[in-house]
């Protein structure tokens, strides 16, 4: 049984939010957040590596389109693909139920830390010269998230 990622995030938040809040109270927000990013970053990098290896092709656009379908499962995201090709995938997320969930439970800043901060380590795990650029997120109050995946030029 596959549980959509949005539902997994909601379940994980029950444990992670109180844990992070306690770490912030004990260590200070900056130190606690750095530790959380470090711990979760390593986890998400490994997930990215496993996911990327499981992809049959090397077409960046096709691989990332499949990835976004997973992130959007369960009506979690509204998004518009701007460019999809062998070496690029540009997408704007225009609606985010992850952000709505963290807003609803009163900790949107933890939503960014626990959800959005996974994007870059996961992309690092993809290998193959894949790089991610993102300058704004809904979780931080922007109108949309601007994901730009490309292959590094040799």
Q: What's the number of helices?
A: 6
Number of domains: 1
CATH topology: Muramoyl-pentapeptide Carboxypeptidase, domain 2
Neighbour order of strands in the largest sheet: 1-2-4-3
InterPro entries: ATC_hydrolase-like (IPR026002)
Protein name: L-2-amino-thiazoline-4-carboxylic acid hydrolase
GO molecular function: hydrolase activity
Pfam families: ATC_hydrolase
Can you give keywords for this protein?
154 residues, alpha+beta, Muramoyl-pentapeptide Carboxypeptidase, domain 2, four-stranded antiparallel β-sheet, globular, hydrolase, ATC_hydrolase-like, hydrolase activity, L-2-amino-thiazoline-4-carboxylic acid hydrolase
In a nutshell, what does this entry contain?
It contains 6 helices and 4 strands; from the N terminus they run αααββαααββ.
Strands, helices and their partners?
Blueprint: H1 5-27, H2 29-54, H3 60-72, E1 77-85, E2 88-96, H4 97-104, H5 108-114, H6 119-126, E3 130-134, E4 145-151
Helix pairs in contact: 1-2, 2-6, 4-5
Overview of the molecule:
The protein has 154 residues and is of the alpha+beta class. Helices cover 55% and strands 19% of the residues. Helix 1 packs antiparallel against helix 2 (29-54). The longest helix has 26 residues, at 29-54. The radius of gyration is 16 Å and the shape is globular. The mean pLDDT is 93. Keywords: Hydrolase. GO terms for molecular function: hydrolase activity. This is L-2-amino-thiazoline-4-carboxylic acid hydrolase. Pfam families: ATC_hydrolase (PF14196).
């Amino acid at each position: 049984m596959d549980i959509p990622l949005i539902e997994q995030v909601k379940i994980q938040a029950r444990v992670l939010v109180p844990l992070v809040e306690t770490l912030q109270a004990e260590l200070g927000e900056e130190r606690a957040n750095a530790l959380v990013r470090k711990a979760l970053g390593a986890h998400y990098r490994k997930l990215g590596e496993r996911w990327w290896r499981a992809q049959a092709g090397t077409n960046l656009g096709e691989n990332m389109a499949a990835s976004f379908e997973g992130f959007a499962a369960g009506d979690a995201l509204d998004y518009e693909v701007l460019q999809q090709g062998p070496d690029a995938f540009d997408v704007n997320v225009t609606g985010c139920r992850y952000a709505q969930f963290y807003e609803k439970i009163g900790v949107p800043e933890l939503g960014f830390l626990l959800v959005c901060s996974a994007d870059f380590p996961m992309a690092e795990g993809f290998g193959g010269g894949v790089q991610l650029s993102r300058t704004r997120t809904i979780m931080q109050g922007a109108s949309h998230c601007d994901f730009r995946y490309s292959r590094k030029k040799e």
